[in-house]
Design a protein that fits this description.
By secondary structure, the chain is mainly α. Helix content is 70%, strand content 0%. 0% of the residues are buried. The model is unreliable at 102-108 (pLDDT under 50).
């Protein structure tokens, strides 16, 4: 069996470094072991975490990879937590809708999902109007709009009523 084993080619430099002793000439192997132990104690490693034959760059890359892995786990846990909170809120609001809805609805009324969609549409519309009111107020305050028209003044006056209506609709959801 030994005669069928393939021998890989080694150039003269590889042979030289393999034949080269690990210790400097004349150094006692026991002294070398003590020096290694002292060096490990100073660096704070116990010899197990250090991978032999790994360059500084490779070690740095391994640390970066581990840090990225920990960050992704942290982000994943945080997103799962936010998702679970959102799901809890959705479940609570769905239960509130079921409890607050009439047990005997009118036969001519629309289904609850269409009513909820209509409320969401109205909320979106109110938010848009409020945003326009805020932008208009900023223009008036900054002096960009010196003489607002009657319609613009009416819009500014309706801002508080829009805010109240939005709060009522958001509470119903």
């Amino acid at each position: 069996m030994d005669m069928f084993r393939r021998r890989s080619y080694e150039n003269k430099y590889v042979k030289f470094f393999k034949s080269k002793p690990d210790l400097p000439p004349g150094m006692n192997p026991e002294d070398a072991a003590i020096a290694r132990q002292q060096q490990q104690a100073l660096s704070g490693t116990d010899g197990q975490s250090v991978t032999p034959g790994v360059s500084k760059t490779a070690k740095r890359n391994m640390k970066r990879k581990e840090k990225r892995k920990q960050q992704s786990q942290h982000h994943q846990e945080a997103s799962e937590e936010v998702l679970s909170k959102d799901m809890d809120r959705m479940n609570i609001s769905a239960e509130e809708r079921r409890v607050s809805s009439d047990p005997d609805p009118d036969p001519g009324s629309t289904d609850p999902s269409a009513a909820a969609a209509e409320k969401l549409k109205k909320i979106k519309n109110l938010r848009k109007k409020l945003r326009q009111v805020e932008e208009l107020q900023q223009k008036v305050d900054s002096g960009e709009l010196k003489n607002p028209s009657k319609e613009q003044l009416d819009k500014l006056e309706r801002g508080q009523a829009l805010q109240e209506e939005l709060q009522i609709l958001e509470q119903d959801l």
